[in-house]
């Protein structure tokens, strides 16, 4: 009969490896490598040997198919990453010309590209749909949730912002209020309510101001609309500074006196708060495209404040 065995060669069955000692017709004697001898039939051992080979072949085929599936999955992931990378907005970085005053003021040409990058980054990190809007007649861009941004009265908004002037780049969080009494659900009213009631948000603002040397610029109506004061972080409270034509004023403030002062400033007149960080032109230029990531990181840190005001 035909079989795969030769005397002196090694095979295996379900017990383990063995060496064929002798073959006589359909009878064979095998000796296990681990010890022990067995008299058995050629037919039985041949069937076991063939089954083992078949199972190994099937296992190899399954492994080949698994590896092929894995390769296809990785290829799809690479293709998806490539598509996302192709769709992702690009920002080349700030340039010297961005900080040079022209006849019509600063001409920051890449503000639209940076706005798109920042909106994309926040959309990816939060799962919400963020957009960007150029600030009319100014060298700035606003970034906010598309469903929360008021396009009709842009002063009535809470947004992240980036602005460029000859002194450098400012970026952070802005809360605005148009002329007249603020509505109950407006960002301004929500901010005042949050500052009164939410100690967690107050602590988050102070922590960011301390860690990143943020300043709160307050714009409101005085003789005319403009910067009426700046708030600086101190060890326990805040320092309010106000420059006037006749004198410079400064005084310490705690949260209660700050909130009271802001509510007075914004009672019926236009008012805008800018919690911002400023960097010099040289630092902004040196950062290159990574400037967008630095700005995104700041926006992300201020996101709890933004979400509290838009909620």
Structural class: alpha+beta
Mean residue pLDDT: 92
CATH topology descriptor of the largest domain: BirA Bifunctional Protein, domain 2
> How helical, in percent, are the residues?
40-55%
Top-tier CATH class of the largest domain: Alpha Beta
Number of strands: 15
Strand content: 25-35%
Q: Determine the N-to-C terminus distance.
A: 85 Å
Number of domains: 2
**The biggest beta sheet, please?**
9 strands, antiparallel
Order of SSEs? EEEEHEEHEEEEHHEEEEHEHH
Could you explain how this protein is built, in words?
The mean pLDDT is 92. Helix 2 crosses helix 7, helix 3 (187-197) packs across helix 7 (291-310) and helix 4 runs antiparallel to helix 7. It contains 7 helices and 15 strands. The chain folds into 2 domains: 10-70, no CATH class; 92-310, BirA Bifunctional Protein, domain 2. A hairpin with a 4-residue loop joins strand 1 and strand 2. The strands form 3 sheets. A 9-stranded antiparallel β-sheet has the order 7-8-9-10-15-11-12-13-14. With 311 residues, the chain is an alpha+beta fold.
Present the secondary structure layout.
Elements (H helix, E strand, L loop, with lengths): L9 E3 L4 E8 L2 E6 L4 E5 H46 L13 E2 L2 E2 L4 H16 L3 E5 L5 E6 L12 E8 L2 E10 L9 H11 L1 H14 L2 E7 L3 E9 L4 E6 L4 E6 L1 H11 L5 E9 L1 H7 L3 H20 L1
Antiparallel strand pairs: 1-2, 2-3, 3-4, 5-6, 7-8, 8-9, 9-10, 10-15, 11-12, 11-15, 12-13, 13-14
Considering the chains and any ligands shown, give keywords for the structure.
311 residues; alpha+beta; BirA Bifunctional Protein, domain 2; 2 domains; 15 strands; elongated
